[in-house]
UniProtKB/TrEMBL annotation:
GO biological process: respiratory electron transport chain; sodium ion transport; transmembrane transport
Protein name listed in UniProt: Na(+)-translocating NADH-quinone reductase subunit B
E.C. code: 7.2.1.1
Keywords: Cell inner membrane, Cell membrane, Flavoprotein, FMN, Ion transport, Membrane, NAD, Phosphoprotein, Sodium, Sodium transport, Translocase, Transmembrane, Transmembrane helix, Transport, Ubiquinone
Gene name tied to this protein: nqrB
Organism: Fontimonas thermophila
HAMAP family in the cross-refs: NqrB (MF_00426)
Length: 405
């Protein structure tokens, strides 16, 4: 690392003001701060010394996604290998098959090794396209504005890739992350100034622009000629009974053995990563708790007063928490510190709002069963209003208390 430090120090003048590559200083600064902590210190008060900075927060979130990635890749491979066997095929087609064969990976659905690597080679190209295309926009805007390249995109890129189905065309991945990065964040000034979650903004764009690949009703298994709907896609047509007829149990959805987006299938893996974020203070437990309580109460009310003509009205509350993107949305998307509410009371209200809206849309508008992203984006829009109302109420309460004394 000392050689790298020497090299960076030697070329630094070229990127400083007046240097040959002055306009590319944000790119140099990004490389330098990835490997080393910034050397700048405050010269005037106030002085703050804290081990938690933006870089560490982003690294924590990035690491917290690893359990969901591991189980998600395994599940993609497991579903694909089962489908291959059902179709009577003995090998994987295309470049993935050649690559897996080269390393001795088979199609045994009972082999964790075979399933994980089969699924991994579906997720990795999605993440690579997300990172390269989204990173291009980050560097472009930072260079033009002469701002530093923010680490926030590391989180946006990995979260966006995990919300997609394994069969999504890569050109759609590029379009989605471009929309989320440019429209959802950069046009508002970049990281910290966006009022919408950029990963969800890109996902919502794909959801409405290309519904055939995103709604959960078509091909989600990574095998040509094999169709399989998500749990919510089945439930919206026949309710919980239709889901159970497929052989799926609640434990399947909790562990992550079902059709779905790569990183959203395993509530257990998401809970492990989310617990880490809440224990480190990166994610607000109030938002998560509020969202879960809001969903439970709304689902119970529908169970109590629901209509026999609407199969989703009888969908049990504990299924709502594990199917679709609810768990992933609650732990990783709703807790975005930029686009969520910032007051403690506001976080409870914001979380409850997202939970209520998720179940409300799932039940009353089954055309959009994957309603978590819509609920959170709507919550992002009203979050400033929630904080404003909470602050105004606190001010009014304090004024009354002072008047009483």
């Amino acid at each position: 690392m000392s050689a790298l430090r020497s090299f960076l120090d030697r070329v630094e003048p070229l990127f400083k003001k007046g240097g040959r590559f002055e306009r590319f200083y944000p790119l140099y600064e990004a490389v330098d701060t990835i490997a080393y902590s910034p050397g700048e210190v405050t010269r005037v008060a106030p002085h703050v010394r804290d081990g938690i900075d933006l870089k560490r927060v982003m690294i924590y979130v990035w690491l917290a996604t690893f359990p969901a990635i591991a189980v998600g890749c395994w599940n993609v491979g497991y579903q694909a290998n089962n489908a291959l066997i059902a179709l009577g095929q003995t090998q994987i087609a295309g470049w993935r098959g050649a690559l897996l064969h080269l390393f001795g990976v088979g199609i045994d659905p009972t082999s964790i090794w075979d399933c994980f690597w089969h699924g991994f080679w579906y997720w990795l190209p999605i993440y690579a396209v997300t990172f390269v295309v989204g990173g291009f926009w980050e560097v472009l805007f930072a260079t033009v504005r002469r701002h530093e390249i923010n680490e926030g995109f590391f989180v946006t890129s990995i979260l966006f890739s995990l919300t997609l189905p394994p069969t999504v065309p890569l050109w759609q991945v590029a379009l989605g992350i471009s929309f989320g990065t440019v429209i959802g964040k950069e046009i508002f000034g970049g990281t910290g100034k966006n009022f919408l979650n950029p990963a969800l903004t890109g996902r919502a764009f794909l959801y409405f622009a290309y519904p055939a690949q995103q709604t959960g009703d078509t091909i989600w298994t990574a095998v040509d000629g094999f169709t399989g709907a998500t749990t919510l896609g089945i439930a919206k047509l026949g309710g919980i009974e239709a889901v159970r007829e497929t052989g799926l149990t609640w434990m399947h959805t909790f562990i992550g053995i079902e059709q779905g987006s790569i990183g959203e299938v395993s509530a257990l893996a998401i809970l492990i990563g989310g617990a880490f974020l809440m224990l480190t203070g990166v994610a607000s437990w109030r938002i998560v708790a509020g969202m879960v309580l809001g969903a439970i109460v709304t689902a119970l009310l529908f169970n109590l007063f629901g209509s026999d003509k609407n199969p989703m009205s009888s969908f049990p509350w504990y299924w709502h928490l594990t199917v679709g993107g609810f768990a992933f949305g609650a732990m990783f998307m709703a807790t975005d510190p930029v686009s969520a509410a910032h007051t403690d009371t506001g976080r409870w209200i914001f979380g409850a709002f997202c939970g209520v809206m998720t179940v409300l849309v799932r039940v009353l508008n089954p055309a959009f069963p994957e309603s978590v992203m819509l609920a959170i984006l709507l919550g992002n829009i009203v979050a400033p209003l929630i904080d404003y109302a909470v602050i105004k109420a606190n001010v009014a309460r304090r004024a009354r208390r002072l008047a009483a004394t």
